[in-house]
Amino acid sequence: MTAGEPAWIDLVTPDRAQTQHFYHELFAWEFADSDHESIALIDGRPVCGIWPDSGELGRGLSYWHIYLHVADLGSAIRRAARTDGAILWGPGDYLGLASVATVRDPVGATFSLWQPHRTDRLLTDLSGTLTWAELVADELAAIPSFYGAAIGLDAAMTRTPGRRYRVLLSDGIPVAGVVHSATKAHWRAYFSVPDLTSALAKATDIGGHVVSPPVETAIGRTALIRDPHGALLGLLQPTSGPGHETTDDNAGYPSTLTL
Known about the structure:
The protein has 259 residues and is of the alpha+beta class. It folds into 2 domains: 6-116, 2,3-Dihydroxybiphenyl 1,2-Dioxygenase, domain 1 (Roll), CATH 3.10.180.10; 130-238, 2,3-Dihydroxybiphenyl 1,2-Dioxygenase, domain 1 (Roll), CATH 3.10.180.10. Helix content is 16%, strand content 45%. It has 4 helices and 16 strands. Strands 2-3-4-1-5-8-7-6 form an 8-stranded mixed sheet. It has an 8-stranded mixed sheet with strand order 10-11-12-9-13-16-15-14, with helices on one face. Strand 6 and strand 7 form a beta hairpin. Helix 2 runs antiparallel to helix 3 (143-151). The radius of gyration is 17 Å and the shape is globular. The model is unreliable at 243-259 (pLDDT under 50). This is VOC domain-containing protein.
């Protein structure tokens, strides 16, 4: 797995049962439950974790939380702290799958570092799986230096007809986008769907609502929705990933979109 590549994702929610029903209907997820968490599955393979809202990160609502791959967690923690990142939790163990630590970057976005105990990759090549992630923030100046120092990512501007799109690269490979938006900084997750129009209709029918209608972007045809408890996520009907020779600075979404 490439440094900085999304390695895992969690959904924090106040109602696991209702949340599971929504995502089962939308993405055909199944679930392996324990007392404290659920693991969403497709074809028996893990897709994400679902956790009850504990309020530990102070978000106060349902939200997605991204984990980025690192080869050496201790080193990444030290580098993040030296470049104005705040270590909010960890290092600690995640269900025996990885060693993790939660970080707030200099622009205020919260994410976790993930050093896996195994070589398994997150399932990303099927409908209903995490297919892309974006760092969304109002102030972008500190992003290249922080993610470069902490994780080893490079920043670049991609180009498609009439559009520009910032990306973070690992060894020349795009692993995430960077979007300018006048909102609280956060990491945004996109899940693959084969037909965006049908997926939006389904999401609305089962209690979600559309935040931003479909737009053509550098990564495909996308839209933003909220699930029944308010968690914001993107739906993506992929075309091809952005190239780094390379829409606008906020990927076609309203610059005032809030988390």
